[in-house]
């Protein structure tokens, strides 16, 4: 499913290709690209839930959460987000690429992935997808894009 998400993001969303295509046509295009129907369905469902979060529906966090509160990860979240990933999320909050709301969207979408393995590079893609459609986050998106595509010679955390 994660491969489908990255393919969609690179092919349609990130390149400003018109995304208002018929879902059946999109499914057929993805099938012809070699993706399995179940992965396509799961990816489209994942994106739909992301859009709901970005629109303020079904937030995965308490509305009155203190933005300065320390985030404690559950055991389930820690299974998906290793120490390196959690450190990177903290780093992004410190440089104000993420705030507590966008961080929680990222964590929600990571835990919704059906991925056997998940690493820092995968996390960066999820963060890009989360930030992409949020009004007012263009600068944060650009910073995240630079972090994703920079040479891996330099580690920031």
Automatic annotation (TrEMBL):
Highest taxon, organism lineage: Bacteria
InterPro entries documented for this protein: Smg
Any Pfam family matching the protein: DUF494
Signal sequence segment: none
HAMAP family: Smg
Stated family: Belongs to the Smg family.
NCBIfam families xref list: PRK03430.1
Name the record gives this protein: Protein Smg
The gene coding this protein: smg
